[in-house]
Write a structure and sequence with these properties.
single chain, alpha/beta, TIM Barrel
Length: 403
């Protein structure tokens, strides 16, 4: 047994509590617990107990699927306090062969029980993947871009409704994007780079919202970057609550100015938007219209970033400092409190996945939690991040994982 003493618990209004852990479970939470037989007593005075993070949008390095990259990813997520995550199906090789999928899923289940696989809905631009077969093999998350053939999108929804799948959709319109490489705005104009208009995201969200409402299929709108897209989903939730708006922490913290100097480490998809757009997204956050946060972890090697901006790959290595970034710019600034952050980073994504014993620090739940020191601070020294040189507040000092 492990006894954590005097922690301020996120999800309980910051109330100080003792937390008793035993055999991978949270067995008791109280103002004071005596535990003479405890293996370890942890003094958490001044620390915040935060639930294990659940991230629904995580990718392997360079999108190359291998056991080596899975090992690196798993180590990074554990260091960042992430207890569960969904592995994006945007990989090479693509998870499309049921034998390969079964072998991979078997390996994952044995070595990394808290990773969930998603499958890409399309095998080729005009051919559906074997969705029914994948579902029978235990995968219940289907992911795809919104701007595919409309009839194929309809069929994906029909399969999802038939099998009770979750549909994760990334909304963009590549034709409207017009080969853009960053947000269409002042910075793209100044740098002479082709821009990506907001209308590509907004119009696709409007289309997919209507499809979701027609089929009543639970849908996660991944990595949104515009206020209007979030607002469209918030309005539709009044008719069908199982529509979820996901926003990356970076789109709430950074804006297009991070790309100044042709900084490829700030090149993301969707792109970082204007300062005004970021402020409007913060407004949606405060209004409660954003359901889920993500670190949008999609690390790329230097060889794919240390090139001309137009040629650089989109992506950010972000999972290890995820909680510190969120605390520094969302909680410490007063935009939201610890309880709301726990809902966005753990409770809501756990509910979407149907993880009944994850996402909250509660008696009977799995013992997945983080001890976080909000009084610590550090300067980001890694030059391969848009946060280089910034001072972040708060550090993870201890993690507990049930498995």
């Amino acid at each position: 047994m492990v006894l954590i003493k005097n922690a301020s618990v996120a999800g309980l209004g910051g109330a100080k509590r003792d937390i008793l852990l035993h055999e991978g479970k949270i067995v008791k939470i109280a103002e004071s617990i005596d535990c003479g037989a405890c293996f370890e007593v942890v003094d958490a005075e001044g620390l915040v107990a935060f639930p294990g993070i659940v991230d629904l949008n995580v990718r392997v390095e360079n999108d190359q699927l291998s056991l080596e990259n899975l090992e690196k990813l798993y180590a990074a997520t554990r260091k960042g306090g992430v207890s569960h995550f969904v592995l994006s199906p945007r990989t090479d090789p693509l998870i499309e062969n049921r034998t390969f999928k079964a072998l991979l899923a078997g390996e994952l289940k044995q070595r990394y029980p808290n990773i969930q696989l998603a499958i890409k809905a399309l095998r080729t631009p005009e051919k559906l993947n074997a969705i029914s077969t994948m579902v029978r093999n235990g995968i219940r998350i289907v992911q795809e871009n919104s701007d595919i053939n409309g009839n194929l999108l309809r069929r994906i929804y029909e399969y999802s409704k038939m099998h009770g799948n979750l549909f994760f959709v990334f909304c963009e319109n590549k034709i409207l994007n017009d080969s853009g490489v960053m947000n269409e705005g002042e910075v793209s104009f100044r740098l002479g780079l082709p821009g990506i208009s907001k209308i590509g995201e907004i119009s696709e969200v409007a289309k997919v919202v209507q499809m979701s409402l027609h089929y009543d299929v639970p849908t996660l709108f991944q990595a949104l970057s515009t206020r209007r897209a979030v607002a469209l989903i918030a309005d539709a939730k009044q008719r069908f609550p199982e529509l979820y708006a996901e926003v990356s922490v970076h789109h709430l913290v950074l804006d297009e100015r991070a790309c100044d100097g042709f900084n490829t480490y700030a090149k993301l998809n969707p792109p970082l938007r204007s300062p005004e757009d970021r402020e409007k997204l913060i407004g949606e956050l405060k209004a409660g219209n954003i359901d889920v946060l993500t670190a949008l972890h999609s690390p790329k090697s230097i060889i794919h970033k240390d090139v001309a901006f137009a040629e650089a790959m989109n992506g950010i290595d972000a999972i290890e400092n995820y909680l510190s970034v969120a605390y520094t710019y969302l909680v410490k600034t007063g935009h939201i409190d610890w309880d709301r952050l726990a809902i966005l980073m753990a409770e809501n994504p756990a509910k979407i996945l149907g993880l009944n014993e994850a996402g909250a620090i509660a008696e009977g739940n799995a013992a997945n939690l983080i001890l976080f020191d909000p009084n610590a601070s550090f300067e980001v020294e890694e030059q391969t991040t848009p946060y280089f040189g910034q001072r972040l507040y708060g550090k993870i000092v201890r993690t507990f994982f049930a498995t």
